[in-house]
Write a structure and sequence with these properties.
By secondary structure, the chain is an alpha/beta fold. It is built from nine helices and 14 strands. The structure holds 1,4,5,6-tetrahydronicotinamide adenine dinucleotide.
Amino acid sequence: MKKKISLIGAGQIGGTLAHLISTKELADVVLFDVAEGIAKGKALDIAQSTAVDGHDVNLVGTSNYEDIKNSDVIIVTAGIPRKPGMTRDDLLSTNLKIIKEVAKGIKKTSPNAFVICITNPLDVIVMALQKYSGLPANKVVGMAGVLDTSRFKYFLSQELKVPIKSINSLVLGGHGDTMVPMPNHTTINDKPIKKLVSEEKLKLIIERTRKGGAEIVKFLEKGSAFYAPAASGVDMAESYIKNLKKILPCAAYLNGEYGVQNVYAGVPVIIGNKGVEKIVEIKLNSNEKENFINSVKSVKDLFNAAIKIDSDLAN
Ligand code: TXD
């Protein structure tokens, strides 16, 4: 039986998600947006592209939540992106209101879906989405670590002129300046990165990874990154739909893991057909632990700001 992926938000990332899902024939697609014309236009355009390579995928564009009924996966990008000079946190109040509406639509039509949130500020928005929707925490996850890790790997591959496939790494913590790239958990052809790159160079690459989103926002002037975020979201959706049980760095609900309680943070998780099936606890040295806790603190601080905007989140 063909799976159904609904994309809430048919903007830059939503449209790219739809196209990637269609070229991979991963599932039928519903593109949902309050700007119905954007959803319908992109769905029709991508549907017409399936004839070129004979991809067997149905695409629908809509602004009616009834059309997302019984989705297997829902990927949420509804919201506004950053403009140059804005931080991800500047998007909080606008995107919080949007996500409350989206959560209502999901709860009503697809309470059994696996929900991947992409909207920024990611760690707080995914936490709000889970609270507003009431879906089980293991079925609501945030996409950030896969993107941040792909940026980190790309910069390393450029520096060392090695194929990206030869690099294993992960980035933990929040999606923002406090993210925690993990050089001690980074290898190239199984060789520890610290034996291949100078400390100075590694620091620069880590800094560029932290600012990876802002670098693209500056170039684009209008809008933010969308190809790599979409590819990252599809990687997570595919692991769920095909039960691949991939270990992926995602914003997941922690309930004691890593010594952290009742907050979403970027950690390695196993994604299979039950959703987040396991939080993978890796050994952190004191510096990594400190950085991780710092990152979690910034998420908690911003969530407290979210509660000030909407006290419904306090429950
Ligand atoms: O790694 C990550 N998680 C980040 C996330 C990487 C890059 C971008 N990140 C964030 O994703 C970005 O800061 C935004 O908050 C979201 C979506 O970014 P995108 O570039 O796709 O934004 P667009 O092109 O503005 O698309 C947003 C769409 C747009 O078409 C609006 O009409 C629609 O969202 N929108 C809504 N859809 C449904 N329901 C409501 N209420 C709604 N409001 C706006």
